[in-house]
Amino acid sequence: MPLVPPRISRRRALRALVAVLAVLAALVWWFKPFGEPELKGELTFSTGVRTGVYHRYGQLLEQQLRRDMPGVKVRLETSEGSQENLRRLAAGEADFTVATADAVAKYRQDGRPGATTLRGCARLYDDYVQLVVPAGSPVQSARDLRGKRVAVGQAGSGVRLISERLLRAARLDPAKDVTAVSIGIDTMPEELEAGRIDAFFWSGGLPTNAVRELSERFEIRLVQLGDLVEQLQGTGSPARYYRAAVMPQDAYARARNTSAVATLAVPNLLVTTEKTDPELTEQFTRTVILSRDGIGHVVHAAQLVDLRTAIYTEPLDLHEGARRYYRSVKP
To answer: What is the pLDDT of residue 279?
Structure first.
């Protein structure tokens, strides 16, 4: 008498199918790292001055990248700021960098070499423009800087762009109405403390360590810039990337401000070029987004990196690798 195979219920068959699929998924996960080549090579990340937020952010990001891409050696290069960062990137001297949106817009507007090859990876955090004076200074607005010795940032920096725009908005000629001192945040604090300058402009995340440390040893005050925002925005691109903002009173707890300070802010962008490998860019972007909380414990501005806004890298198009990452995490 022929054997009749036992009948299998639909429910048991479905359970068996689920079990098989689970095993296959586990095998795919297990063998995938061996089937795909590991990223290898070197990349250069151009940051900023050693005492600025860009460089500290770069140092912490490099540690995360080392874990996520162990086959890739990351080299950090300090710089004068956004303008120099973009020049390096376009010249092939760096693979990734951070630059303010207004600096990117100006670089493109001026038709600088390699401007059309620039691509965005992520919108990061905003820089806040800070005008710092001794606590007893009579300066109450940028208009009061006439005849003063004012540090305006180095020639290749983003703060140089914004400080000169602000002075013009205050109806001051940067070349005639103030004594412009071309130094960066690495030396601005000690120059103010020594009385060799009367004020300095800085554009950076809150708080910037160099400013915070100055406030802890020397009495300073931050001057409001809110009265210039509307006029500045009216000048069009690239100034349209500035927005009105407020620095909380406790941004620098030791500063001699009795209330929040009205100012302006500008977005920072993570930038690369169209020539950068898509897989490398995808992984780099992933690390930037996923490392937000860890880095944010040290660089507080990094806490503001947000997946929902990171894709808005105007005036730059997204790099294909970055686009792949955002698609992979789209809900």
So the answer is: 97
Does the predicted TM-score (pTM) go above 0.85? no
Closest among 183, 197, 191, 184 to 214, alpha carbons compared:
191
Q: Strand, helix or coil at 243?
A: strand
Coil, helix or strand for 70? coil
Residue bearing tokens 């409001």: 224
Query: Amino acid identity of 308?
Result: R
**3-class DSSP state for residue 17?**
helix
One-letter amino acid for residue 177 of the chain? D
Q: What is the pLDDT, as a whole number, of residue 46?
A: 98
**Which residues are within 8 A (CB) of 14 and not within 5 positions of it... i.e. 6 or more apart?**
none
Closest CA to 137 of 262, 256, 259, 263: 256
Report helix, strand or coil for 283.
Answer: helix
Tally of CB atoms within 10 A around 321: 21
The answer to whether the bond into 207 is cis (omega within 30° of 0) is yes
Q: What is the pLDDT of residues 8-51, one digit of tens each?
A: 555 565 565 545 554 444 444 344 444 455 899 999 999 998 88
Which stretches in the chain have pLDDT values below 50?
1, 3-4, 18, 22-35
